[in-house]
Every structure is written in C-alpha cells, then in structure tokens.
Amino acid sequence: MFKKDLTASPKQKLKSSIQRSLRQSLLTTYPLLTPHIDDVLPKKSSLEQMKLPDRVSLYVIEGQPLFYQEGGGVIVPHLKLVHRFPHAFPTIRIDRGAIRFVLSGATLMAPGLTSKGGRLPDPNTKPVLQPRPAPKEGEEEGPSIPDEGADEEGHWSRELEKGEPVVVMAEGKETACAVGILVMGTKECKEKGKGPVIEEGHYLGDGLWRLITE
Amino acid sequence: MADPAFGRQVAYCGVCTLPPEYCEYGGTVKKCQEWLQKSHPDMYARIWSPEALEAATASLSVEAQERAAKDAKKKAAKAEAAEQKQADKLANSVVTIKRIERNKRKFVTAVSGLEAFGLDLKKVAKDFGKKFATGSSVTKVPSGGEEIVVQGDVSDEIEEFLLEKYKDIPEDNIELVDDKKSKKAAAAAG
Ligand SMILES: [Zn+2]
Predict the structure, then answer these.
(1) Would you kindly state where each structural domain of chain A is located, as residue ranges?
(2) A174 contacts in B (CB within 8 Å)?
(3) Has domain A89-128+148-203 been given CATH number 3.10.400.20?
(4) Residues of A in Cβ contact (< 8 Å) with B64
(5) CA-based radius of gyration for chain A
(6) Localized where (chain A) (predicted)?
(7) N or C, which end of chain A has less CB nearby within 10 Å?
(8) Hey, are the CB atoms on A172 and B55 less than 8 Å from each other?
(9) Model confidence over B134-174: pLDDT tens digits?
(10) Residue B89 pLDDT more than 50?
C-alpha cells in the first residue's frame, strides 16, 4: 500500500466534531486503547489530517503519526503508535523466515503464521492482561475493557475475522514489523494453512514509515 | 523523555530509522551497527551478541540462510547505489538567490532550489521572515516548482544565513543572481 515514497498534502486541522467521531471509532475498533486514549489524543492538542495518495488519510498529533484510514474504512494504527502501546492491538506473529518478505512489501502468506515460529490466536489461552491504571483523582473508573490480549507465548485470545485490522509481530523480535487488514480470518488460516492473509499493509521502512510528519 | 503518558519509548536506528532489531533487513547493516554500538552499547550487545545471531540462524534451513544472505548482499549494493546517486544529486544541485527589482529601488529576493537539499520551504520561509524581520513566503513558479520570496534586498544576508544554518549546502552550490528590470530598459534607451 505504501511501497513507494509518499507525497502528502500539508497538515490540516480537523473540526472538533470530526476529532470526536474519530476518537470514538478508535475506541470502538481498539477497546484496549481505552486506558490510554487521553495520552494518544490529548484533549488540549488538536488532531491534524494529511491527505495521502489513493484516498488515504493520515492523522497526526503534535507531529506524531497516529493512524491512517483508507476512504471511510477501518482505522489502522501507524507502527509508531503500535510501538508506544504494544498491548492495545490484536496481534499475530510471523516466523523469522517471513520477516524479510514482509519488510519488502510482499503479501503475508499463511505458512509464515502456521509454522513453529508463527503465532495465531488461540481462544483456549489465558491472556496476560495489562493492569489498568488507577483512575485519576476525582475521576470515575472508565468504561470496562474487554479481557482480551496475548498470552505469554504471543497467542491472541480471540479468533480474528476477515476485515479486522491486526498488528504483525515477529519471531525473536520485541517490536511489531507490520500492520494491516486481514483478508482471511485467523481460524480459516489455521484450517487451510495456505493463501494470502494480509495483502496490503503498512510495514517498517515503507513510504508511510518514512513520511516526515514533524 | 521518560513520560509515561507517551507509552513505550522505542529507540529507532539513527541510520535506517527502523527499530535496531530490524537493522539486519536493511541495506545499511554495517553503518547501523556502528551507530548502535556508539549510541546504545547495551542494545548493541544484546542484538548482535553471538547467542542472538545463532538463535537467528538456527531456525532457518541452510538453504533459507543462503537465500537471505544473497538477498542482504543485493540490498546492500542497492543502498550503496542509492546513496551515491543522492550524493551526485546534491553535488549538482544549485540554490539560486535572485535579487529582483520590482519597482524603482524596490527589491524582492527569490530563493530557489532549497528542496533538493531536503529542506521544507515553508519552514525556511518562516525562518527568513523571523531572521530578517520582513515578509517571506513560498510562491509557485510558472515552471511548476516553488520558491521563497523575501521582501527587500537581502541576498547577501540570505547566503550567509544558509551557510551558517544549513550545513548540507556547499558554498559553491549557492548562486547569486541579479535580475535587473532596468537593464533592458536601459539597453532600449541607449
Ligand atoms: Zn539501522
């Protein structure tokens, strides 16, 4: 999706009504981001939009890239946001051999996930839940956060559906290397063991990664 | 920097910009390693330790290792070529500072070519405006690009300022031009 270098429109401040609705869709898509939402979108800073080719919008706050969206589609986090809040997004993991293909923009194929080094969700696991921060003084405890997450081995606790956004971790690495939208559900991926799983995404070193947002 | 609200602070490689654990997949591994060893010795020790390297190759078949090595070599060559190309491009790029006479004894100074040196024209225009306390803006030129137009004749000052602040621009790549309107008029009259 961002294989080539990108040219972006200048940053544009968004109306507060649009900012509010983006905040809401971000929370709906990534409920685990709830405890961090005021850190991701500080109330006193304003969210800016950069228009990229192919109807993609990148949203930026104080020079920090946050997430992008194609047309009016699913909100997908920028890898720099994933690195800041690694436990807030659903993950799958590729084996070591698949890393260099993903980092060259290739389609992510099922065998890179079903092999020994790969990880797909396992609903039988117990996720390691991130302790939620205590509510600040004078604040009520926020809305409840679902009990999902990855276990110690890196298995996400819920099967992910086709069309859902997912972060791609890698065997032996601590930081995520890609993010994208599933073109095949994780259950089907396990059953079939072949075929494309993420076709076009955002990966380390691609045009979106290199885009200057400061 | 250690602001809990920011979330986790991941250090990024000063050479290839990726998290250092992914430097091995870029074409600048050697430079990345040098940078990491100097800037984050602890991380360097962890990522490039013999144990880590062994773990990295143990899970790959010999064939896959060979392919990966070949791939890495190709990437390194590509990165080197790109770097050379960029260096050549910079060497041949010229920043033009042009003094233009608008009316009788009223001048503007137009600066073009800065984008080749990776500068953000809007930012530089702002800097000019502040530095010289005068109007300064980015305008489109008929040929399709953009240039910075500063009110007043500040050619020499701009040259000095560029050399001082933006060290990437070699002095020889800055060109001062005088665009006199009266020249033509004078020639016609003469
Ligand atoms: Zn690097």
Answers:
(1) 11-84, 89-128+148-203
(2) 19, 21
(3) yes
(4) 97
(5) 17
(6) Cytoplasm
(7) C
(8) yes
(9) 899 999 888 778 899 999 989 999 999 988 888 888 888 89
(10) yes
